[in-house]
Structures are given as structure tokens and as C-alpha cells.
Specification:
globular, single chain, alpha/beta, eight-stranded parallel β-barrel
Length: about 220
């Protein structure tokens, strides 16, 4: 399957998702998915590595990159493709991101998340991560994307070559607003896994919306 030359879909999968392996398998039947990010939920007392292992295998078997959030040990033991780390605001997260990149890149992708401001984005961007994530992994609490994150994503896409991911809302059609920013990737979570018609149809719909509405990237 050719890789679309436009914004692509990223799936955020919290460890609280019931039957996550079945849900992911169905989702990947629905169409193009660039990567998955596996996230530990607040207060989780489960075995996160045990949760991640089968999902990493399912994704990689389908040719989809698997990234594990905020747990380098689980990422290493599961042979994940990448590590995602949520960072504190301002410049405080720069040393942490730089250290992770030095330790794990290029063998694994390293991306920074919870980016909240232009200053933070620029400071983190100087460490040359594989991507920056605008918004939090669990910030899809409303049907539409967060307006501030959309503005940041649009600014980033115009200014910087480091790839960006922007979190969408709890409805699949929120992906239209994310793609309109020109950002590289749009992340969805509950919009996919709580969709009335199931994750397969949700991913199919997301890709149909991206095909119709997302601007094509200029050839470099």
C-alpha cells in the first residue's frame, strides 16, 4: 500500500482500553495508520509491559510503527520502534529529551509530548527529536481539537522541519481540523476506539476524510 502524501493517522491506545489487542487488529483493517502510541493511564495498576507486548507485535506485523509512552524499560523489552516522553513546560524537559535521544537514537525513535507553547517547542526542537506531539495523549475530552494546540501545530508545520503530531478530539471528523494545520500526523484515540461502528470503520472514515480534506505535502 503506498504511503499517502498527506497528514497520516496515529492511534493513541491507553492501557485502560478493554480487549485492546482485538480493537487494534480491527482498527488496522480499516486503512492507513502510521503508528500507534501506547499510553499508561493515571492510576493504572496493571502490568504495562504485559499490555504493550502483544500490541507491539500486532502493529509491527502490519507494518505500523509501535511507540511506547513514558516507560523506556517496557519499550526496550517489547522491542518497540520508539519512545514517547511527556515533558514539563518551558525548558525543563530539554535535558531529559536530549538524554533520551543520546541513549536510544537512532536505534529507536524518540519523540517529545505535552508541548504547550512555541517557546517549549523551539527549545525541544533544538534537540532534534524524531517528532513533537502537540497536546496530551489523553486530551481528547471534547469532540473538537483544542484550539491552542491547532494554532501551535499550524505554526510548527510552517516553521520547522521536525515532524509534528497534533491530538484530535473525540469525534473522527475532528481530524479535518488537525489536517488543515499542515501538520504531519493527526492522533486519535477515543474517536477510534469508542466509535459506534467500531474501530475498523472509524479508521476507514478517518482516512476518507484525510483523502478528501488534507492538503498534499510539497515534494522536497
Amino acid at each position: 500500500m503506498p504511503v499517502p502524501n498527506r497528514c497520516r493517522l496515529v492511534l493513541v491506545i491507553p492501557d485502560a482500553l478493554p480487549d485492546a489487542d482485538k480493537a487494534l487488529s480491527k482498527a488496522l483493517e480499516g486503512g492507513d495508520v502510521a503508528s500507534i502510541i501506547l499510553a499508561k493511564t493515571a492510576g493504572s495498576d496493571g502490568n504495562f509491559q504485559q499490555f504493550c507486548q502483544p500490541l507491539v507485535h500486532i502493529a509491527q506485523t502490519a507494518g505500523v510503527a509501535a511507540v511506547i509512552a513514558n516507560d523506556t524499560q517496557a519499550a526496550g523489552r517489547c522491542n518497540a520502534d520508539g519512545i514517547h516522553v511527556d515533558l514539563p513546560g518551558g525548558d525543563a524537559g530539554v535535558p531529559q529529551l536530549r538524554e533520551l535521544i543520546a541513549k536510544f537514537s537512532p536505534a529507536m525513535m524518540v519523540g517529545g509530548g505535552a508541548v504547550k507553547s512555541r517557546h517549549m517547542a523551539l527549545s525541544l526542537g533544538e534537540t532534534n527529536p524524531d517528532y513533537l506531539f502537540f497536546g496530551k495523549l489523553d486530551s481528547d475530552i471534547k469532540s473538537e481539537p483544542h484550539a491552542k494546540m491547532l494554532a501551535l501545530a499550524e505554526w510548527w508545520a510552517e516553521m520547522v522541519e521536525v515532524p509534528g503530531i497534533c491530538m484530535g478530539g473525540s469525534e473522527v471528523d475532528s481530524i479535518i481540523d488537525v489536517a488543515a494545520t499542515g501538520i504531519d500526523f493527526a492522533a486519535l484515540s477515543s474517536a477510534i476506539f469508542s466509535h459506534n461502528e467500531g474501530p475498523k470503520e472509524a479508521v476507514k472514515l478517518a482516512n476518507e476524510l484525510l483523502d478528501k480534506h488534507a492538503p498534499e505535502f510539497e515534494d522536497v
